[in-house]
Structure formats: structure tokens, C-alpha cells
Design goal:
Length: about 475
């Protein structure tokens, strides 16, 4: 689909989407693909174009070239019309000596993967005395009969008039406010993303014009058109509440009619003990060690990934979880089954740490500006990640190159592969092991208060949900079918 979109951006302006699809298929057949490849592309394009029969791909310009049709240049050059083939339409702007099948050199340097930022200023001679010279923003507008035009991008619906002029400064102010209030990096990323989507949706309005009505329309768009989940809708609402209160200094006081999306109660997915045994048998190495910790200690994914050397106490047989969900600390058990493997892992890790010391790399990231108070603490062995990444990376906040912890995608891939190899048909994620940890403890008779402490739940009601997925739902209760 990315190849089709890039092709349509260059060759299919002002064409209906079905015609753009046919033009792309004709272009694709020039490379002599197999019938199977063509069928796959047809299927993908069919799914993409379903319900969009009246769409047109047109360039959205900052200036209006024709009444009621922003971005359309009314009279394309005659040579462009003459050179256009039925299967490969000529671009809107062309040059007299240009090969019809070649890509316009002015279009070649565009960042086609970032349509909201790809801007060019170009000129083309349409007649002897007329010169078109405009700065165009390459993005798609959909024009349907009787429907206002909107821009379709990776961010969703975007106002055709562009974002608010102060959007960049508002985003920076939001980022500073989030860091001032010590929000996590992931919350910062999600809040910034939702705020940017909202501002692109509203269009070029002033700060005093933003209010409850715009928020209501945006949330309705997410729920009705985008059909997002209740949690995503509530996350967007929370981000906008923060934006209005901390950045615009105008709390949304009259949002009583905007009710948060209600979530239905969903029971967690739990593996049986046999399934856990089969699952872990398919894992090995660092990922296998981490997955055993998730199940054996009930850790959350990021709690395991962010584990530091000083937080593993082999003498007491415990793990100290620092800054868990909600910024809370707790103590969990260190499973005896992973003790030996974890000690060997740390011995290998110490070799990597010594190599980083010799290379004089920056130390690991430290919380709460400890690297300012203790400049050398990041190089101390005690503060090193238990599961560091193989490659160096750039800190998104400080810009310093250092060794960060392992990326969570590595573990997600390991979970997916192990579940497939073990023949488990349930939907298995890394968090499923934590659910299984709690359920198996309750099934073995562990007090629910103890399980609550081990999981780090603030409310006992959160822990009680595991009682609904226990193997024995009630003492002495038997299905009537078994008695027939």
C-alpha cells in the first residue's frame, strides 16, 4: 500500500481513486510480476478502496487556484495532456522536454513517507506569459459529493486549512508541563500524540476559540468514525484535559455531557500450568530468562526490562521493584529456578560493562537527576541494566548516546514465537504470564491479600478478578451435564 500511495502522489492527481488503482496496476504489470503477486495487490487495493469510490487525490495548496477547489491548478500544460497515456497519467506540473514515464525531478527529493512535512516550492511554465510558483503541502484530500473535504494521513483526519499557527509551541509547552509533573516517557509520548491529532483535526483556530465543542467533536470522531476502543478514547480525553488545564490555562469545566467511554469487564487470559511448561520450554537465552521472571515473580513487562543490578538480592531471594506502576515500589520473590541462570547472565553482562568503561561511554540513564548530583553513578556496576540492549541509542530527552535497556519489541516477538511453537491457541502476551502467576497462586491456596501485595495492586477489587478465572470456580460445584 505504501508503494501505491507514493505512486498516486506523483502520477494520479485529480483522478478518481478507482482510476488511480487501474493506473497503478498497469504500472505494476510492466515489471512482469506473477499472477499471484498481482492478485495479492488487487485484494489489498480492493480493501483499501472499499467505500471510497468518489474519492479524488488532489494536492492541498495554501492558496486557492480555482473557486471552491483549493489546490487545483485549472489549466494543466498542453504538453502534459498530450503525453499522458491511458495507463499512466501525466503529473499536474511537468516540463516540456520531460519523458512521460519518468519521475519529475522536482518530485524526486520529496519525503514521501512524511506527507505532512513534505513541502516544496516549484515553478512551471504553463504558457508564454504565465508562471505558477507555489509552495505546496503534499497530502491527500478526499472530495466526496456533499461532504466537506478533509485530509487523510497517518494521523487520521486533518483539517484542509492546516493546523493552528501555534501548534508547535503548544506541543512544546505540553511536553514541558508533562516533564514538570514527572509523567513517564510513555505517557508523554501518548499525550503528545493525542494532542497533536486534536490540533490537526480542529484546524487553524486561535487559543480562545478552542473549547468544549471542539473536544466533543473530536471525541465523537474517534468513537464513531475511527471506532477506537474505550481505553483509547479515554486516553485522548485525559490528554486534552491536561492540555487545556496546563497549557491553555483554561480547564474544561463544562464537560459534564462528555462522559468517559465505559469499559466492559473483561476477564484476563490465563494459561494452565501445562501450557506454561510447554511455553517456557520453547524459550531460551536472555528472552527465556526474562519470560521466566515474568511468570515466576509476577513482574510487568517494563518492570522486568527496567530491572537494575542492585535491585536483585540473591542472599534474601527477593527482587526490589522500583518505580512500578503508579510510581510505587514493592518486593517480590526471586524464583529459585532462575537463580543460577540469572547469576551466569550477570557474569556475562559484567564483561560488556567493562568494555563500555574502556570505551568511556556515558553511563546509563538515572532517574530524578541523579546523574547531576552523582555524575559517575551511571557508570557504577550497581546501576547497570540487568537486560541491556546490544546497540547504543540516543536518549530522547538529553540527546546523549548511551546503552539503554532492551527494547520491549524483542520480548513481544519471543512470546509470539514461543506460543506458536508450543501449539497454544490462546491469545498470549507477556502480560498473560503475570495473569497466570496470580491465578496459579490463588489456586494453590495463597491468601488473596498476599497476591495483592505481590502484584502491587492498590485495590483488592483489582486482584479479585483472578478469582473469576480460577480452575475451581466453586467448592463442590459440578456441571449438571457431568451427572447425566
Amino acid at each position: 500500500m505504501l508503494r501505491f500511495v507514493n505512486y498516486a502522489r506523483i502520477h494520479c492527481e485529480l483522478l478518481d481513486l478507482p482510476i488511480s488503482v487501474e493506473a497503478y496496476l498497469a504500472f505494476l504489470r510492466q515489471g512482469n510480476p506473477t499472477d499471484w503477486q498481482v492478485d495479492q495487490v488487487k485484494l489489498a487495493l480492493h480493501l483499501f478502496s472499499r467505500g471510497t469510490e468518489r474519492w479524488q487525490w488532489i494536492k492541498a495548496s495554501k492558496q486557492t487556484s480555482a473557486p471552491g477547489m483549493p489546490g487545483i491548478i485549472p489549466n494543466p500544460p498542453q504538453h502534459a495532456q498530450d503525453s499522458a497515456s491511458p495507463h499512466q497519467p501525466a503529473p499536474l506540473i511537468s516540463s516540456p522536454n520531460r519523458d512521460p514515464g519518468a519521475v519529475d525531478p522536482l518530485m524526486a527529493n520529496l519525503d514521501l513517507d512524511n506527507p505532512l512535512k513534505a513541502q516544496i516550492a516549484f515553478g512551471a511554465q504553463t504558457s508564454e506569459n504565465q508562471l505558477i510558483n507555489r509552495e505546496l503541502i503534499l497530502r491527500y484530500r478526499v472530495k466526496a459529493s456533499g461532504v466537506n473535504a478533509g485530509v487523510i494521513s497517518a494521523l487520521g483526519a486533518v483539517s484542509p486549512a492546516g493546523p493552528p499557527p501555534e501548534m508547535d509551541s503548544w506541543i512544546e509547552d505540553t511536553k514541558r508541563a508533562l516533564r514538570l509533573n514527572h509523567y513517564s516517557i510513555r505517557t508523554e509520548q501518548s499525550y503528545i500524540d493525542q494532542t497533536r491529532r486534536f490540533l490537526l483535526f480542529t484546524g487553524p483556530v486561535r487559543a480562545e476559540e478552542l473549547g468544549e465543542a471542539q473536544v466533543q467533536r473530536f471525541l465523537e470522531y474517534l468513537a464513531i468514525q475511527r471506532m477506537v476502543s474505550a481505553s483509547t478514547q479515554n486516553q485522548a480525553f485525559s490528554a486534552l484535559l491536561f492540555f487545556f488545564k496546563r497549557v491553555l490555562k483554561r480547564p474544561l469545566m463544562d464537560m459534564a455531557e462528555t462522559v468517559r467511554a465505559s469499559k466492559g469487564r473483561r476477564l484476563p487470559e490465563v494459561l494452565s500450568r501445562d501450557e506454561v511448561k510447554r511455553f517456557l520450554a520453547q524459550t531460551e537465552g536472555t528472552s527465556g530468562l526474562m519470560l521466566r521472571l515474568l511468570y515466576g515473580a509476577g513482574l510487568r513487562l517494563m518492570e522486568c526490562i527496567r530491572l537494575r543490578v542492585k535491585e536483585v538480592d540473591f542472599d534474601r531471594g527477593v527482587i526490589l521493584v522500583r518505580d512500578g506502576k503508579g510510581g510505587k515500589d514493592r518486593v517480590v520473590m526471586l524464583p529459585g529456578a532462575v537463580r543460577s541462570g540469572l547469576q551466569q547472565h550477570l557474569e556475562r553482562l559484567r564483561v560488556l560493562w567493562l568494555q563500555d568503561q574502556e570505551a568511556k561511554l556515558d553511563g546509563v540513564w538515572l532517574p530524578d537527576a541523579l546523574d547531576v548530583k552523582y555524575p559517575n553513578a551511571g557508570r557504577d556496576w550497581r546501576w547497570q541494566w540487568v537486560f541491556p540492549a546490544k546497540a547504543l541509542s540516543v536518549d530522547p530527552r538529553s540527546g546523549r548516546t548511551r546503552r539503554h535497556h532492551l527494547n520491549d519489541n524483542t520480548l513481544h516477538k519471543a512470546v509470539k514465537a514461543a506460543a506458536l511453537q508450543a501449539g497454544i491457541t490462546k491469545s498470549v502476551s507477556a502480560h498473560t504470564l503475570r495473569h497466570s502467576f496470580a491465578t496459579h497462586l490463588l489456586e494453590s491456596g495463597t491468601d488473596i491479600r498476599t497476591v495483592q501485595e505481590l502484584l502491587g495492586h492498590a485495590s483488592l477489587e483489582t486482584t479479585q478478578i483472578y478469582t473469576h478465572v480460577m480452575q475451581k470456580l466453586g467448592i463442590g460445584v459440578q456441571s449438571p451435564l457431568d451427572g447425566v
